[in-house]
Design a protein that fits this description.
Largest sheet: 7 strands, parallel
Number of domains: 1
Shape: globular
CATH superfamily: NAD(P)-binding Rossmann-like Domain
Distance between the termini: 54 Å
Radius of gyration: 19 Å
Order of helices and strands: EHEHEHEHEHEHHEH
Oligomer: single chain
Number of helices: 8
Bound molecules: nicotinamide-adenine-dinucleotide
Number of strands: 7
Strand order of the largest sheet: 3-2-1-4-5-6-7
Length: 270
C-alpha cells in the first residue's frame, strides 16, 4: 500500500528542481500527478519521467500569475483524474534586483508579490472550489525560511513568502471544518542544479556553519515533507508551518561564532 494510492495531485513549478522531485515522489506513492509549469517543456519532461517509471502523470503549461491558466490547470486535473485530492504550490522565485527596500523598484516588488503571493492564492482559490465540493483536500504551500527572519537581501521575496504563511493559516482556519487541510513548508537552502551555479561559495560555507545537520539539504528532503503533509499521515495537522532547514532557525543567532570560539570558552563547561 502506498501513501497516496488513487489520489489526484497537482504540483506547480513541476519542471523545476524541487517540483520535479516532489511530483516524482508523489507518483511513486500512488498519486496521479498533473505536472504544471509556465515552462511547458520542463513540465512535460517531469511527466514523461513519471510515465517512464510506470506512474500516472500528465503535464500542462500554466503560469500561476494568470487566473485563466490556473482555472484551466485545475479543470485539466479534474477532467483527467475525476477529482483533486492534493495541491502542491511549489512554483515561485525571486529577482536578482530584489536587494534593499531603500532602492526597491516597485515593479520588482509587484512582480515578486504577483508570483509568490497572488499566484499561490489563485491556485488555492481554484483548487478549493473543487476540494470544497468534494469535502476533502490537502494543500501544501512552499514558503521559505526567508519568511521567518530578517535577511540582508530579498525583502520582496521575504514579504511574499510571509504572505504565503498567512494564506496557509487563513485557509486552514476558514475551511478546516469542511475537510480542507492547508500546511506550509519553509525550506532552508536547497542547492540543486538550477541554483548551485549562481550561488556564491562563501554563502554556502556560511549556511553550512549555521545548520545543525551534518549535510546540506536536498530536493528530496523537501519532497519527503510534502508527501507527509499531503498524505493521511498528517490527517490531524492543519495550518502548520514545517521548517525543513537542517535546524537553521532552531538555535541562537550566535551558534556559529560560539562553535568557532570552542565549547570550552563557555564558562559553564569549565
Ligand atoms: N532552492 C531553495 O534553496 C529554496 C529555498 C526556499 C524556498 N524555495 C522555494 O521552493 C520553490 C521551488 O524552487 P526551486 O528551488 O525548485 O527553483 P526552480 O527554479 O528549480 O523551480 C521553480 C519552478 O517554478 C516555475 N515557475 C516560475 N514562475 C512560474 C509561474 N509564474 N507559473 C508557473 N511556474 C512558474 C519555473 O519555471 C521553475 O520550473 C520556490 O517556490 C522557491 O521559492 C527554494
Amino acid at each position: 500500500m502506498t501513501m497516496l494510492s488513487g489520489q489526484a495531485a497537482i504540483v506547480t513549478g513541476a519542471g523545476g528542481a524541487i517540483g520535479r522531485a516532489t511530483a516524482r515522489l508523489l507518483a511513486r506513492q500512488g498519486a496521479w500527478v498533473l505536472c504544471a509549469d509556465r515552462n511547458a517543456d520542463t513540465a512535460a519532461r517531469t511527466a514523461d519521467a513519471i510515465l517512464a517509471a510506470g506512474g500516472h502523470a500528465l503535464s500542462v503549461k500554466a503560469d500561476i500569475t494568470d487566473e485563466a491558466e490556473v482555472a484551466a490547470m485545475v479543470a485539466a486535473a479534474v477532467a483527467a483524474f475525476g477529482a483533486l485530492g492534493v495541491l502542491v504550490n511549489n512554483a515561485g522565485g525571486s529577482s536578482r534586483r530584489d536587494v534593499d527596500i531603500a532602492s526597491m523598484d516597485a515593479a520588482v516588488w509587484d512582480r515578486t508579490m504577483a508570483l509568490n503571493a497572488r499566484g499561490t492564492m489563485l491556485c488555492c482559490k481554484h483548487a478549493l472550489l473543487q476540494m470544497l465540493a468534494q469535502g476533502a483536500g490537502a494543500i501544501v504551500n512552499i514558503s521559505s525560511g526567508a519568511a521567518t527572519a530578517g535577511q540582508l537581501s530579498m525583502p520582496a521575496y521575504a514579504a511574499s513568502k510571509s504572505a504565503v504563511l498567512a494564506l496557509t493559516r487563513a485557509i486552514a482556519t476558514q475551511h478546516g471544518r469542511e475537510g480542507i487541510r492547508c500546511n506550509a513548508i519553509t525550506p532552508g537552502l536547497i542547492l540543486h542544479e538550477n541554483l548551485a551555479p549562481h550561488y556564491p561559495e562563501a554563502h554556502v560555507r556560511i549556511d553550512a556553519a549555521n545548520i545543525l545537520s551534518p549535510r546540506q539539504g536536498t530536493v528530496d528532503d523537501i519532497a519527503n515533507a510534502v508527501l507527509f503533509l499531503a498524505s493521511e499521515m498528517s490527517a490531524f495537522v492543519n495550518g502548520h508551518v514545517l521548517p525543513v532547514d537542517g535546524g537553521l532557525f532552531a538555535h541562537t543567532p550566535t551558534y556559529a561564532q560560539t562553535l568557532e570560539l570552542g565549547l570550552d570558552s563557555l564558562s559553564l563547561r569549565n
